[in-house]
Every structure is written in C-alpha cells, then in structure tokens.
Amino acid sequence: MTTPARFAQDRAWSERAAAPLRRLCGRGAQPSADELEALRHALSQQDELAAALVRAVPARELHRAIAAGPAAVGLSVVRPAGVGLSVVRPAGVGLSAVGPFAAGASVAAASAVASPGAGVFEVSASAVANSDAAGPAAAASAPVAVRAFFEAVLERPAWVDDRLLERGAQACRAFGMDAGLVLAYGSLLGGYRTAAALEPLVRTGRMAGGETLRRIKETSIWWRAVTAPGGLEPGRDGFRLTLHVRVMHALVNARLAEDPTWDTALRGTPINQYDQASTLGVFSTSFLLHLRLLGVRVSRRDAHAVMHVWSYIGWLMGVDEQWLPHTEKRGRRLLYHFLSYDPPPDDNSRALAQALIAMTDQEFPGRRRRRFERERALSISSWLLGRRAMHDLGLPYRPPWYGLGRVAANMVMTHALGRLPGGRRLLLARGERHARARFARWGIPDDAGKAR
C-alpha cells in the first residue's frame, strides 16, 4: 500500500511542534517500526461498518433510522444486575451482515455533508429529540444493514465501566467554563495548527466565515449531551447524536471518494483512522493538559475517568481499538506519534483559525465588546498554544493576561474550595450555571444536565 504523501511531509516542523508532547512522554516515546507502519496504514482506513451502512441505505433514510434508535428496528437493550449492556437480536440477523469495525470518526469533522444526489444530511439535536418513535412497522421494513449497525454498537466492549463513565462525565461538567475555553482555543484551534484533517472540513464550507459559531454551538450541544448524566446510554441524546456524527463521516467519505478533485495520493482516505484517532486525542489527552495549564485541579481518578469516557465515545464513533487512548500515558504517546508525522499548517489552517477568533463578533453587540472578546480569545490562545503555534496559525501573539487570570481563579475554586466538603457539588453547580448562561446567550434550550 502506498503511503499518502502528507505523512512525514515536513519532519523538521512536525518534530518541533510535537516536542512538548515528546518531553511529557519521557523515554520510549518514539514509535516502533510496527507502530510506524500502522500509522501509515491508518491514513487509508475508514470505518467499514458505517461505510457499509451508507452503501446500503439512502442518506435521508439513514437520518431517520439513526435518530429513531435501535428500538425502531426491533432491538431491545437489557442490563442484567452487575453486567454491562447486552442486546437482544432478532432471529437470523448477525454481525457478519456488515463486517468488522476497521476505522474511525472525528468530532472535528461534524459538519453538514451531502452524499451525491441525496441533499444535505445534518446532525441535529432537535431532529433526534423529535424522532423517538418510528413505530413497529419500521422494525419490519428496516434494512439488514441498519439492524446490524445497531447490534454492533450495542455490543459494548468488556472494558466499559459505567461507574467510570459517570465519574468522567461529571468531571467534564464540573470543569465548567474552563472546559469550553479549552475545547475552543486549545483543542480546536490547536488542531488547526496542522493541515492533516482540514480539507474535508473546508470542503463542507461549515467551519469558516459566518458558519463557525453555528458549528461551535452544535458541537457544544453534542458535548453537553455526551457528558449529561446517563447521556451515553442507548436511547439518550448523547448516544444517538454520536452515532449521527459517525454516519455523517461515512457520508463524507462516500461523497469525496467520488470527487475527482480529491487527491488520495496526497491525503489518503478523506476521513481516516489516523485523523479520527488524533482528533479523539484532542478531546481527551490534550483537553486534560490544557485544563491544567489554566490552573484547574484534575485529580488522577478524574483524569482516568475522563479518558475512559472519551475512549468509549471513540469506540462508538468507529475508532479502532488499537487507537483508543484509555489512559493519559498512552494518550500522550499516541498524540505525539500523530503530531510528529502530521503535515505543517496551510492556508486552510490560517483561514479556520481567523474565523474561530472572529466568531464572537456574531455573539456580542458593540465595537468595544467585540474588540474585548477578540483580545480575550487571542490572549487565552497564546497562553494555551504558545508563540510559535500562534505564528503557524497566522494569529498575533498577545500577553496571556486572561489565561493567567483563569489560573488565579482556579487556584481558589478548584484547588481550595473544590477540596472542601461539598466542593464537588459547588463546582458542578458553577459549571451548570456557566453552561446555562452560554446556551441562553445563544438562544438554545439546555436540558442536557437534567436527569430523565
């Protein structure tokens, strides 16, 4: 198999960009020969289960099928005492109808896409909420591929621990506004530093210009859904929205595979295993590192639980087991491997970075307020990413006044008050207030934190 030309395109740049991660990894950070070969191969892998689903079912029908959930195709979920989820299969239908998992999906590419001739296929919280009951007729008429898809995602791996899922989701909510700052200006903006996974994003036209804020809102809805209490249980919004994103990625691949302008020799598969796993690392490993840069106290137990949550989310999205991070130590090493062989930034990197910094212009009225919000975004980005990364992104470096302000606030809130009796409840309540205020400013109902 020919390795796409983007792999190790500029080793001097990528090693320099990945140097902080290499130092965190310590001895043994470099990939072995087998690991290096796996990285090359991952650029040409896709999510085979979702790809088979897309081949078998028209896009508009997929939207309804995924929103309706497994019950609509005759599957029921049971949870015996002390045992993980299991699925009751209709007679005569097995996992072999579609085939094994082979590749993954990224959250960063969760943008509207169209399969040829099918129109736009969008992930939407309202669409999920309004598609709870498809009726018993749907079970009889659903394609075998839909049943097989749901069977596969309901067969949870043995390593999934419900207690860790609960703790990890709760920790994410307790991080409050700092989680949102990190995801926007550390994880997302930092991900733009390399051109690796940006071309599919740009081609959808949904992460630049006036669409940036809209997509940030939709990603925030998804993030709140997967971190809500029980949000990853089958039938809940986090579970269903995650599957929507997974299928969207398969639709992107199907469309771009037929696009004669897609340069496979340079880029590999449009949404590939390598980039999906790297993006998963941005939402897990990088997320925790950047939280600590803002002075947030992240205990070992919370860090382990957060990595567990995102490993399960990655699995739900089709990321192959070999690329799931599971622990911070493993996550840092994987992220170092990806970044140290990623291509340098390009025009897409700089255009997306500019759009992200400017998105607050759509949120706040008045020239002075907008200028303040831009400077605040540049300040915290400079603190989280550093001078060299800001240069790579074509952004001006600013003194990190806002980042240092967050450090001071978190020393009081998370390191002092958070350790007191009732401190966890205090941080959770503060986080929920921040989330509700942000969603109210956006004019979006926020029910993610409410138990059902």
UniProtKB/TrEMBL annotation:
<dbReference type="GO" id="GO:0016491">
    <property type="term" value="F:oxidoreductase activity"/>
</dbReference>
<feature type="domain" description="ER-bound oxygenase mpaB/mpaB'/Rubber oxygenase catalytic">
    <location>
        <begin position="176"/>
        <end position="399"/>
    </location>
</feature>
<protein>
    <recommendedName>
        <fullName>ER-bound oxygenase mpaB/mpaB'/Rubber oxygenase catalytic domain-containing protein</fullName>
    </recommendedName>
</protein>
<dbReference type="InterPro" id="IPR018713">
    <property type="entry name" value="MPAB/Lcp_cat_dom"/>
</dbReference>
<dbReference type="Pfam" id="PF09995">
    <property type="entry name" value="MPAB_Lcp_cat"/>
</dbReference>
<dbReference type="InterPro" id="IPR037473">
    <property type="entry name" value="Lcp-like"/>
</dbReference>
